[in-house]
Every structure is written in C-alpha cells, then in structure tokens.
Amino acid sequence: MNKFAAKAASALCTLGLGLVLAGSIHAATDRDAIIERIKPHGNICLQGDETCGTAAAAAAPAAATAGRTGESIYTRSCAACHGSGVLGAPKFGDGQLSALKNEKGMETLLANAINGINAMPARGTCADCSDEEIEATVEYMLAND
Ligand code: HEC
Fold first, then answer.
1. Are residues 66 and 130 located together in one domain of the fold?
2. Which of 37, 73, 76, 108 is the most exposed place for a label (fewest CB within 10 A)?
3. Rounded to an integer, what distance in angstroms lies between the CA atom of residue 82 and that of residue 120?
4. What is the pTM of this model?
5. Residue 45 domain-assigned?
6. Is residue 48 part of a domain?
7. 129: helix, strand or coil
C-alpha cells in the first residue's frame, strides 16, 4: 500500500468511526425520547401508603371529609385515571361516561363506581367516601362530560 492509499484509508476509518459514534449518540437520544414519551402520566398514590404521599397529603384526610364536593373528590381521587383515560378509564369531558350511562343506566354506573369494575378500584380509591359522595362525584363527572 503506498503512502497516499494508507492516508486515504486512515481518513476513511476516522470518518467511519465518526459516523458510528454519531449514530449511537443519535440512537441514545431516540431512546431517551421514547422513554420520556411512554412514561406514566402520573403516579397513583393509594390512601394510607406512606411511601408516596407528601406530609401535606398525609395530613389531608383529617380535614378532607368536611365540605367535600363532587368536584373536589374528583380532583383528589379520580382525575389521576379519568383525567387522561389511564388503564382504559372513561376520559373526563369527552362523552365516554355519558355514553356508558345511556348504555347501562345510572344505577349500574354507581354500583360499579362504588364496588369497582376491572381496573376501576372500589370507590376510585376514595376509601372514606360515602355512597352519596361517590354519587355526587359521578354526577359532577357526567355534568362536565
Ligand atoms: C386507578 C384508576 C382509576 C381511578 C383512581 C378511578 N377510576 Fe373510575 N374507572 C377506571 C377504569 C379503568 C374504568 C373502566 C372500567 C371498565 O369498564 O373496564 C373506570 C370506570 C369508571 C366508571 C364507569 C363504570 C361503568 O359502569 O362503566 C365510573 C362511574 C367511574 N369510573 C367513576 C370513578 C370515580 C367517581 C372515581 C373517583 C372517586 C374513579 N372512578 C377513580 C379507573 C379509575
């Protein structure tokens, strides 16, 4: 191999390595973007679970039962799933819940909200919600559906 050919080969190698490196950096960026895209929208913190709540959340239940409305219960206990339709939950505000009500009737809807159905937890994780409060919450969701 003459000197020129050797230089050219080495230049090609450097270029090739550069491309491989650039390629893998690109791949890493894509992977990060995918992880970012598929990560869960929110964290579900079950009542009584000390590991995920903040001090404020832990202190909340004492005062929480007084003066709760369908809206405040929805925001606290239901929005985590129904806000974005996590796990196939009927998404708030897009008519799915109203369609279910027309299909099954309010009684069934309420019974399922209270007892749970498939991935829908009993009382939507609001363990200290009364039946009336769950009803008020479902009515709030339907009124804004
Ligand atoms: C952990 C996620 C999660 C939380 C929190 C949650 N839901 Fe649900 N909910 C679901 C899922 C999933 C479904 C769909 C269940 C199915 O039909 O398979 C559902 C369905 C429902 C339905 C329709 C039931 C039916 O008969 O089809 C009602 C009503 C409802 N939820 C009310 C509530 C209320 C009220 C709260 C808060 C107090 C709540 N949910 C909190 C996940 C959740």
1. yes
2. 37
3. 10
4. 0.66
5. no
6. no
7. coil
